[in-house]
Design goal:
This protein is α+β, with helices and mostly antiparallel strands. The protein is built from 18 helices and 37 strands. Strands 1-6-7-8-9-16-13-12-11 form a nine-stranded antiparallel beta sheet. Strands 2-3-4-5-10-15-14 form a seven-stranded antiparallel beta sheet. The longest helix has 25 residues, at 4-28. It is globular and about 80 Å long. It binds alpha-L-fucopyranose.
Length: 828
């Protein structure tokens, strides 16, 4: 029998299946690297999709009849050049120190609050530029809605259908041009009709349509905490219509019946640098606009994609199958902690890299607490730079995920802090060198902010300065080291002058200090102390890097001697009665303390003072501390924990943290999570959690801080089966061009040496090179980039119950390398 209708139905079904598959594939991008949704953002900022080119940022809502694009520019900050040093501190310094040494921390805190705080600005605010609105009459009802952010191309798309017409909007922050661009099209002619206007949360801004038919907005940023707002900004949007009619009012641009429209948005300020705001913002914005708008949409887009991909494509990550890629991103997020979706973890990883590329470009400002995206006049913590963890965390992925150039804005900020911080060290503490406390802003303030509990901590300079050293360790560029050496020396000089002998222990300690934002019960709820573990670890690193840099550059040998002598008098790390790494100089930690900051594990990550191979007791104590503090916490805290568990070589625990972090906000009781647009939730949104997790995932796959280039140090069961990564960078100028694994074993690793030297590699299985089975290496790695300072023996409480770690067998090989050569290792 022959049933033609059945065959027809079959054919239609077949075609339908094919076209749905094609549509789905289009939605999620060819490699699944698209965030996409089936509904508009509505009024929720954390639903909108971020675009940015380091100088400009925008959140695209994808709302259908009332589109909104929230605009940012990297230098648009409240206030003006100012300093917040408190010279009155010097007169009370010895009294504050004395009180702390006597165990009267609360009194020391009260005195510090009187003397040091409440007089000066606690830092200025990263402020928004305003909003561009596009109103589409008659678009209230629609079908086939889609919006997505393709992070392989750095472009957002919104599309929907009304009747027979499919409308598409594409938007991106141009790499190569200094504008945001949006293009509106339809699949039928003469369909694009809308009116465009601005709104702004700023109190006063002049909005008008200019003689050149541009939509313009000019304003000035806020006064804040006694500092006059003097950053002037201009926003200029130009509308290029293809067909149709343009009419204008004083403050709106109306377009009717166009075939397509391209919108160019330019934003600029008068900011030149932290001391100089004398530029002409309007001329700047107009120059950028004229330059860009002379080019077509496709010309700008064709330049944009390769300029962006120059960074993005350096790392490709495959963690396993895209089992759930057909689901929209918010649904995948909802499911992630319950199902296996390794490709979602890879998407999140790459989203972290996308965010860094989009919010931190050479010549621009460093990524702030929200990257470059903020729509509020008074955002949480001013969206500024908190340098007792958060700003540093933003830059953890920069070197290993092959975005070293994007470290530049942060490194330049450290240089500028060393300039302003010299005055702070002198006037507040009578010390040479430079210092920064726990916050800074675009004006590079280095004085204390908020209150003694948080702000008296003075390790911000020491810690941020270590990024300069790390940048050198990855590149091996001696000329660069020479240029930053004075900053490293200055950070060490500050501590040389500032350290005092502890009357009870005789060690040299930072006083006053804190262990950021935490306080033991035993100190009456005060955070102030002398010789906290984190402060000791930071000073140890600051001295060690200054010593090593000076030796490499063959300079300041007397200075080196004095630092070595002082370093030997720093407190060693201590292990307390609960088997924990002590946070304080006395054994006063509580095993029930769940505080989000675990500052004393700075020594485990980002530093390398605690190691499973070199310091097993400290390693066990750090593990106990991590277990006592628990997993779920604020977003960034969980991001840091991914890195710590990776350094613990415990991939499964690190993975649990990723699951906790990749949980919709509100599900973790008392903890953060992730918003629909994959922004990390403290809550509120803080970008550090995104960057921290991307860094942590890198540490799970590769580490290079502990004497070797370690492949697959902490691979969780979830990613064991098979996977690959390309382009990671390791210390000593090595690049892991490609690595493939299966069943937890490294199948193949191609490593490029850029500067030569011994490649010591640590792997979970035996490997061979050129058919030669490698011999296991012994002793210290002779490569100077892998040299590690000897850590003083820990002091261990008699009550501490410690167990030496049972480490998985690894294989360690030495391969002598030459610069610009490739080395291929394969599974034996
Ligand atoms: C530190 C943290 C807070 C927050 C703020 C920006 O003060 O303790 O949790 O992340 O920075």
């Amino acid at each position: 029998m022959y049933f033609p209708t059945f065959r027809l139905i079959g054919k239609v079904l077949f075609l339908l299946t094919i076209s749905t598959a094609v549509l789905k594939a289009q939605k999620r991008g060819p490699s699944g690297l698209t965030l996409w949704y089936e509904q508009p953002s509505g009024t929720t900022w954390e639903n909108a999709l971020p675009i940015g080119n380091g100088m400009l940022g925008a959140m695209v809502y994808g709302n259908v009849d009332q589109e909104v694009i929230k605009l940012n520019e990297h230098t648009l900050w409240s206030g003006s050049p100012n300093r917040n040093d408190v010279p009155e501190t010097l007169g009370s310094l010895s009294q504050i120190r004395q009180l702390i040494f006597e165990g009267r921390q609360k009194e020391a805190e009260q005195l510090s609050n009187q003397v040091m705080f409440g007089k000066k600005s606690s830092g200025q605010i990263f402020q928004p530029a305003g909003n561009l609105h596009l109103k589409f009459p008659g678009h209230e009802t629609y079908q086939n809605y889609y919006r997505g952010l393709d992070i392989e191309k750095a472009i957002t798309t919104t599309s929907y259908t009304i009747g027979e017409v499919t409308y598409t909007r594409e938007a991106f922050a141009a790499f190569g041009d200094r504008v945001l661009v949006m293009r509106l099209t339809a699949n039928k002619p003469s369909q694009i009709s809308f009116s465009a206007s601005y709104t702004t949360p700023h109190r006063s801004a002049a909005i008008k349509v200019s003689a050149a038919k541009d939509l313009t907005m000019q304003g000035i940023t806020s006064d804040h905490e006694g500092v006059k707002g003097m950053v002037k900004y201009g926003v200029i949007s130009r509308f290029k219509n293809e067909g149709g009619l343009v009419t204008l009012t004083d403050s709106t641009i109306n377009i009717k019946g166009a075939n397509a429209v391209t919108i160019y948005i330019s934003i600029a300020t008068n900011f030149n640098n932290y001391k100089d705001i004398s530029a002409d913002e309007h001329k700047r914005a107009l120059d950028y606009l004229n330059e860009a708008s002379s080019k077509s949409f496709s010309t700008i887009l064709n330049a944009h994609i390769p300029a962006y991909q120059k960074y993005f494509n350096r790392v490709k990550l495959d963690l396993g199958p895209a089992t759930a890629a057909d689901l929209p991103t918010d649904k995948r997020l909802m499911n992630f902690r319950k199902v296996s979706d390794p490709q979602f973890a890879a998407l999140y990883y790459q989203f972290g890299r996308y965010l860094l590329i989009s919010s931190s470009q050479p010549g621009g400002q460093p990524a702030n607490l929200q990257g470059i995206w903020n729509d509020q006049l008074n955002p949480p913590w001013d969206s500024k730079y908190t340098i007792n963890i958060n700003a540093q965390m933003n830059y953890w992925p920069a070197e290993p995920t092959n975005l070293a150039e994007l470290h530049e804005p942060f490194l330049r900020m450290v240089k500028e802090l060393s300039e302003t911080g010299t005055g702070t060290a002198r006037s507040m503490y009578g010390a040479r060198g430079w210092v920064a406390h726990h916050n800074t802003d675009i004006w590079r303030i280095t004085g204390p902010v908020d209150g003694a509990f948080w702000g008296i901590w003075n390790g911000g300079g020491g810690w941020t300065s270590q990024h300069l050293w790390e940048h050198y360790l990855y590149s091996g560029n001696k000329r660069y080291l020479n240029t930053v050496y004075p900053i490293l020396k200055g950070a060490a000089t500050f501590y040389k002058d500032f350290l005092v002998a502890h009357p009870k222990y005789k060690w040299l300690v930072v006083n006053p200090g804190t262990s950021p934002e935490n306080a033991p019960q035993a100190h009456g709820g005060s955070s102030l102390d002398a010789g906290t573990t984190m402060d000791n670890q930071i000073v140890f690193d600051v001295f060690s890097t200054a010593i090593r840099a000076a030796k490499i550059l063959n300079k300041d040998l007397k200075f080196v001697d004095s630092l070595m002598q002082m370093r030997a008098q720093l407190p060693p790390m201590q292990i307390g009665k609960y088997g924990q790494l002590q946070e304080w100089i006395d054994d006063v930690d509580s095993p029930n303390d769940k505080h989000r900051h675990i500052s004393h594990l700075y020594g485990l990550f980002p530093s390398n003072q605690i190691s499973p191979y070199r310091t097993p007791l400290l390693y066990d104590a750090a593990r106990n501390t991590l277990l006592q503090r628990g997993d779920v916490s604020t977003g960034w805290s969980m991001g840091w924990k991914v890195n710590w568990w990776a350094r613990m070589l415990d991939g499964n625990h690190a993975y649990r943290l990723i699951q906790n972090q990749l949980t919709p906000l509100g599900v973790n009781p008392d903890g953060g999570g992730t918003y629909n647009n994959l922004f990390d939730a403290h809550p509120p949104f803080q970008i550090d959690g995104n960057f921290g997790c991307t860094s942590g995932m890198t540490e799970m796959l590769m580490q290079s801080a502990d004497g070797a280039l370690h492949l697959l140090p902490a691979l969780p069961d979830e990613w064991q089966r098979s996977g690959s990564i390309t382009g990671l960078r390791a210390r000593g100028g090595f690049e892991v061009i490609a690595m493939e694994w299966a069943n937890g074993k490294v199948l193949k690793a191609v490593i490029k040496s850029t500067i030569g030297g011994n490649l010591r590699i640590r792997v979970p299985n035996q490997m061979k090179i050129n058919e030669l089975v490698l011999k296991e290496a012994k002793g210290e790695n002779p490569n100077p980039f892998y040299a590690i300072e000897k850590i003083p023996e820990a002091i261990v409480s008699e009550k501490a119950n410690l167990s030496l770690p049972a480490l998985k067998k690894t294989f360690v090989y030495d391969i002598p390398t030459r610069s610009d050569q490739f080395y291929t290792l394969v599974l034996n």
